[in-house]
Structures are given as structure tokens and as C-alpha cells.
């Protein structure tokens, strides 16, 4: 086992990455902390800490890390991170970034660390360059079930299936494209549905891929596993307290037909590319136009406040009406 080979779990939000994390945390040799998110942020500030690849100003690095909201959820003393850094000063930037993870693993009595941050699906090239031995598990779930979950829990951001479809399709495309550029031994895809149907077989695949011996402990369910999720996030991830159960969300019975059609109008091609059948061969013109309009409204409403959003919406709405009339004439 290569102790310098971190295991990254990436994917679209609500795709089962938390379930895989709590399963792998039962392994005696691996520790996967809560989501980090801070790697790209600290990378962007790397010039503050030293020239080239070195971290000479450890105090500034630790200050920035300690102020990070996500790191605070780990409940890991910053001095434990300092101790890891000081084991071989001056550290490279990659070693400094690994220090909070190795400190977390050490606190759990584990030799190897991993990371479960779904959004790192957009940062595979950076992570792969920082840690040349890192391997990536891309969790993939039927985007329509993802939409059910997202619309249920994140109404503030996503109000329509079209926007979830747009983000899901972009995330899975990016992860596959960047993962395919790596050595095949460093990237694998794991379907959430297969993990639920065959936990043993799929976890054996993950362990073999990551260079870990398979352990029966990975299959032992304990409702107290929810305690491994930060308190502020337990409502969103409450189902990890349940044993792996297929069908808790099923777009076929729980998703309204207009939402299914809207999702497939945006991400039907990606569904097929990842092995999921469409329910509609081709969306109606009205459905496709409605989905495009909702994506436009979402994009404009996400612009900085200094942009005159109402003016942009008014102009785009007029164009949409003209396009709709042409399609229905």
C-alpha cells in the first residue's frame, strides 16, 4: 500500500459520496474527513506562503487554514496540523496541504488519508498534479434521482429540474473527461445504484482499485455512523444512518412527468452516456424551450448585483416569446 496515495471521492452532489465515505471510514487503514473544499482556495493563495513549491511561512498557511469554515467542522486542533508540517520542514506545498489530512488520519489511528468533496470533480487535474499517486473514485447516480434529492433539500438554489440537469451533466462530463486523461489505474467510476444492489462486490472493486485489502468491517452497518457527519449537515445526510437500501428515491414513481421531461431535455445525452435510459426519446419543442428559459433565468439571477438583472431578463424574455411563437406556429 502506498501511504502517499490519497483516495479522492468526487461526483455530483447527492450522488452517494457521503455513503461511500462512511463505508470506507470503517477500514482500519483509511481515514476520510468531512468535505474539505479548501485545497483550491489555498492553492490560489500559495504565493503568500513561499517561493516556488515551498511553504516557508507556515504561520500564514495555518492561519488561513484555521479560518476556513470547512476545516473548522473537522474539530481538529490546528497544532496537530503544525506538528505534521514540522516533521520535515520546509515542506512542499503538497505536503503542507496533506498535513491536515494526515493529522486527521493520525487522530483516528489510520495510516492513509482520503477526501470526499464532490466538487473536486472539477479539480481533478490540480489534485492529480499535486499528488501524482492519488486515485479518484467518481460516484455516478442517475441524474433524475439526483434532481429529486436536490429539489427536496436545496429549493433555495435550484427550483427546477432543468438547472439540476445542467449542473449534473456538467459535473459528470468534466470528471469523466479529466479522469480519462489519467492512467487508468488512477480513475474509476462507481455507480450508486450498483453500490446499493451489491455492496460487497462494489466495495471489493474500490479496495482493489485503491490498493487496500478488503475488510468485512466495510459492510457492518451502525446507525451511529451519522455522528461521523458534521452536526450542521446531518439533516441533509440523514439517510446514511439507514442500511444501504435501494429505491428510497425513485424518479419513476416520485418525479412529476413534466420534471422528467425537462431534465431529459437538458441532460438526456449524458444519461445515456452513463448507462441510464431516457424515458422520452425526444422532448417536445415546448419542453426544450421551457428548460432553456429556466436555465437563462437561473444564469442571469446568479450574476453580480451590479448587473441590471431585470433589464436583462426583460430583453431575454422577449426573445424567448418570439422563439416560442415560431416553434408553435
Cα Rg: 22 Å
- Give the full name of the CATH homologous superfamily of the largest domain: P-loop containing nucleotide triphosphate hydrolases
The helix-and-strand class reads alpha/beta
Strand content: 5-15%
Largest sheet: 5 strands, parallel
Summarize the structure.
This protein has helices spanning 17-24, 38-44, 58-66, 69-72, 78-85, 93-107, 124-130, 143-153, 161-180, 192-197, 199-210, 251-254, 257-273, 285-301, 309-328; strands spanning 7-11, 30-31, 112-116, 135-140, 187-191. With 329 residues, it is an alpha/beta fold.
Explain how this protein is built:
Helices cover 50% and strands 7% of the residues. The chain has 2 domains: 7-241, Rossmann fold; 251-328, no CATH class. It is of the alpha/beta class. The chain has a 5-stranded parallel sheet, with helices on both faces. It contains 15 helices and 5 strands.
